[in-house]
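re: ur question from earlier - yeah i can do the single chain one, its not a big deal. heres the input i used so u can compare w yours
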Amino acid sequence: MKRKIIGLVLVFISILLSLVNVFSVKITGGIIGVNIESSILTILTFVFFFGGLLFLSSLEKKLAALAIVGVTAYAGYKLHTSPKDYELVNKLQIESVNVTSLDVNKSGKFQRTYRYDVILDIIEGKYKIPKGILKGLAMRESYGDPLRLNERSDGGAGLFMFSPGTASAYGLKVYGYSKKTGIDKKHGKELRELAKKYRNDYSKLSKIDDRFDVEKSADAAGRFLIDLYKRYNSWDKALSAYNRGHPAPNPEETNHVKAVKEYQKYYNEKDKKDYYKLYKKGKIKNIRL
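and the output i got, formated as tokens:
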């Protein structure tokens, strides 16, 4: 009897670990997804599960325990693969990228931005933006974090750090009443309180303010960037104007433009897929853009 109790306890612990693994969320930098320590939890789950089976004597109980863990694992799989918060990205299979030997700072920004590679590929193709510029801009502006707020709390927010005024001008719904294109500390404070209230929950924040919605903000950034290019007939000037409202005298020498172009090159070197071409060929479905 004692062996059975120990076995059931161990199996129960394995189920709890499995559930923790399923619902684990890493909020660091606004990242929403499976925690980086997920593999450790998976190993512990199996250790406790099989340890519990050793203590369970009857075949029936072993099968019952196996069924319970199987159902739990299946439920976790469905939760992670269901098109919930990132409907478009979750419908596509994107391979992982090996960045173990790369610069940590760049690789982190790349990995976060790469989650939206499909969306950004399509938008760059849609507005005829040179490959990688929009991605480099996302790496520069928000480090690839769709929930990022400007560090100085000036009112900028989202993957492309839209000010409330510019966001509204490009058709994005903005939280609050600010229409400023410059610094707005009051609005910045309101955004921080909003993010805190909803605990950086993408599914909620992206419905309140479109700047947090990856697809909507990326499409607006694509339209804004191509408008600037048409106005100044130069991508360097367009990138500079995006950052400061008007181009710098020598935009190619500014830190912002240099950084975006460096990230663009870095991203393109690591990106081995051209999803826009696949989309045009009809091999990728369910695109809302």
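The two ends are 61 Å apart (CA to CA). not sure if urs matches, ping me
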